[in-house]
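Escalated from tier 1: nicotinamide-adenine-dinucleotide holo job.
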Amino acid sequence: LVNMQNRRVLVTGAGSGIGAAVARQLARLGARVACLDRDGAAVTALAETLQADAIAIAADVSDGAVVARALAEADEKLGGIDGVVNSAGIVSVKPVTELSLDAWRAVIDVNLTGTFIVSQAAIPYLRRATNPAIVNISSAQALSPIAGTSAYSASKGGVLSLTRALAAELGPQIRVNSICPGLIDTPMNESLKTKADDGPPVPLDRYALRRWGDPDEVAATIVFLLSSAASYMTGASLAVDGGRTYH
Ligand code: NAD
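Tier 2 regenerated the structure:
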């Protein structure tokens, strides 16, 4: 059902975690992948392990001019763009009383504005494709935030609403969906894991499945939303969170 053969997909944040898992799954399914990250070395290393049709692009998603050049490069080298995955993101965990305006702006800039910049820049390319799709990565934090995540949760709430607004505006040409991952075992959560050893444990009892999620379990849902198997889905938000948001 999920056929990605010869689909051309740009993945941001592909240098690590969920984005890297998406790039690997897409390549395995025969897609051509543009792996974009501000960590150029990470995407270069990843692209080398994928098939010949994968390319690496070093770019910061919060820089409009840089992103415009990156999209043009992906279009030229892949021969078009059928799908975009906005996985680039950063986290900040601080009580709101200690959160600086600079730290707030940095998180909003990458997570929300970066998703806007890449999606907007991709529209002309996607409009030329068949069954084009954008998948944005929101978070369980958008639906049910924990303390200390005001900037991150607000940015992810914004991604959820931006996804629905884009779906309304870009349909029937481009499908736009989002996913809300729970606690996923990626470098983003390294400090949480370290803390779990010598500090208060991660509250796994808030997750019905009582375990961390694997990046591949998130990537599978993203690949599904990109594929024609999801051709009647737009504006949707899928929780991939081990039961965190209902539990
Ligand atoms: P990660 O830290 O492993 O990977 C994020 C990647 O984004 C890194 O390679 C980083 O270099 C890149 N990046 C950061 N800022 C960038 C920028 N300005 N321009 C280009 N690239 C940039 O994190 P992850 O866990 O794979 O997270 C991927 C997405 O999933 C993020 O949007 C994150 O908020 C979201 N998410 C993660 C979890 C989780 O538990 N790990 C849960 C919910 C949502």
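Strands lie at 8-12, 32-37, 55-58, 83-86, 133-137, 175-181, 237-240.
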